[in-house]
């Protein structure tokens, strides 16, 4: 690839983004009382000099304050996989908050048991508890794992994603052993004191780390996502389950992003058998919500421990966790929006999206690949596709990624800002997908000139 041409095209698209979005640019300049000028500093992870500011969002469409409408394949990086403001969820939230009242009264509602039973139907775990984020669900699952095993360490895969959980910010270093993940800010201690790490798709490395006998739980995504989709190789997940049982280690599956694989995520699609499962983002239809599930055996072990304070000072819970509003949103989302039929529709669209991307790659004989996980597709600047998190991180090309993101956004298409991921929702259409295929092909043609 002609890097000079790429730089020229990136500069052109950056200038066009500034021209098209004067109100967003001005709003960003005025945001002097926000740390980093945005509500959360990660919102600065965007192609161009400033983020586009949200005005409205419905289904698979968003508009910004400059009046531009976008086909949204980002969908809040999975948080809006149900689509933006599904009508049935909005009605449930309105009913709970405005008509019944009491978003957070520290009292349970009957909706909670319905949601727990539905999560059991989908994922197989027998007992459920709720949080506001998947990050908190992971934190609490880790505490429970440590409590019941009396072991201090957690093992994760290199470059996996589990939110801002301290124990997860570890990667495999050049020497093959754990080291702090680049960019880990203000770590409370050396991460190797709390964590071990192994490459995804490397059962030998996993066994080497588990053999120390100090790992309470393996916390893993069944397919890597936030570093780019990395799918498990045949037999790998079965080996993980066999090894965790061999060494008396619990297995926590984080389905927050891999929920895209189907109504029960990868756990149902691939017949996985975790001891705990964590999930968040999409299950609330855009309202903050998370959950963690436990096997019946593990739940009984924990509840049978008289020395564990699971009610007051156990470090597991939050005042707003399991609040009536979040639980109402989860019920409406799971009952009426992210249904089995919706997932089938979304998967077909994702397959169509991936095929369109592959056509563009093949037309220019590019050494790129496209990966898919149910409703989720992603293109990577490497061929063959990466098989570990470290390989996936090394395959990144920020300059090329920024060009593609800006090119698409300037023409009314949004991808996830952290990587080149496209997600389908129940309101996404074939026309939306085909629009991306056309604009993506135009971008590649400009690069190839």
Automatic annotation (TrEMBL):
This is Transaminase. Belongs to the class-III pyridoxal-phosphate-dependent aminotransferase family. Its cofactor is pyridoxal 5'-phosphate. PANTHER family: GLUTAMATE-1-SEMIALDEHYDE 2,1-AMINOMUTASE, GLUTAMATE-1-SEMIALDEHYDE 2,1-AMINOMUTASE 1, CHLOROPLASTIC-RELATED. Gene3D superfamilies: Aspartate Aminotransferase, domain 1, Type I PLP-dependent aspartate aminotransferase-like (Major domain). InterPro entries: Aminotrans_3, PyrdxlP-dep_Trfase, PyrdxlP-dep_Trfase_major, PyrdxlP-dep_Trfase_small. Keywords: Pyridoxal phosphate.
């Amino acid at each position: 690839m002609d890097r000079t041409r790429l730089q020229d095209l990136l500069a052109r698209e950056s200038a066009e983004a500034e021209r098209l979005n004067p109100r967003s640019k001005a709003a960003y300049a005025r945001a002097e009382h926000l740390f980093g000028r945005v509500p959360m500093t990660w919102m600065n992870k965007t192609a161009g000099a400033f983020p586009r500011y949200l005005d409205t969002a419905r289904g698979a469409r968003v508009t910004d304050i400059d009046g531009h409408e976008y086909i949204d394949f980002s969908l809040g990086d999975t948080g809006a996989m149900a689509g933006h403001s599904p009508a049935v969820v909005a009605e449930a939230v309105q009913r709970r908050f405005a008509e019944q009242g009491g978003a957070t009264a520290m009292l349970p509602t009957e909706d909670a048991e319905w949601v727990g039973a539905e999560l059991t139907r989908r994922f197989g775990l027998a007992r459920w508890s709720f949080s506001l984020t998947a990050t908190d669900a992971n934190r609490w699952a880790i505490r429970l794992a440590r409590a019941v095993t009396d072991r201090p360490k957690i093992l994760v895969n290199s470059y996996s994603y589990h939110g801002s959980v301290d124990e997860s910010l570890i990667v495999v270093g050049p020497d093959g052993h754990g080291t702090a993940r680049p960019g880990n800010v203000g770590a409370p201690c050396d991460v190797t004191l709390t964590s071990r790490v192994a490459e995804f798709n490397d059962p030998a490395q996993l066994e080497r780390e588990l053999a120390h006998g100090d790992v309470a739980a393996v916390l893993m995504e069944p397919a890597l996502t936030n570093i780019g989709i990395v799918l498990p190789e045949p037999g790998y997940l079965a080996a993980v389950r066999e090894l965790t049982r061999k060494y008396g280690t619990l297995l926590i599956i984080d389905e927050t992003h891999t929920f895209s694989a189907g109504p029960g995520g990868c756990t149902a699609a691939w017949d996985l058998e975790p001891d705990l499962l964590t999930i968040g983002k999409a299950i609330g239809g855009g309202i903050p919500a998370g959950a963690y599930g436990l096997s019946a055996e593990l739940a009984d072990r924990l509840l049978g421990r008289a020395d564990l304070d699971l009610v007051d000072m156990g470090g597991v819970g939050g005042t707003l966790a399991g609040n009536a509003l979040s639980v109402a949103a989860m019920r409406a989302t799971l009952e009426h929006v992210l249904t089995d039929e919706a997932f089938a529709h979304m998967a077909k669209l994702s397959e169509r999206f991936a095929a369109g991307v592959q056509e563009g790659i093949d037309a220019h004989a590019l050494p790129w690949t496209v990966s898919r996980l149910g409703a989720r597709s992603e293109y990577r600047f490497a061929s063959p596709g990466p098989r570990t998190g470290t390989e996936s991180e090394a395959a990144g090309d920020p300059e090329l990624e920024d060009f593609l993101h800006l090119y698409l956004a300037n023409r009314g298409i949004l991808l996830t800002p952290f990587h080149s991921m496209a997600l389908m929702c129940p309101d996404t259409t074939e026309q939306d997908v085909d629009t991306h295929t056309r604009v993506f092909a135009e971008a590649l043609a400009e690069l190839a000139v």
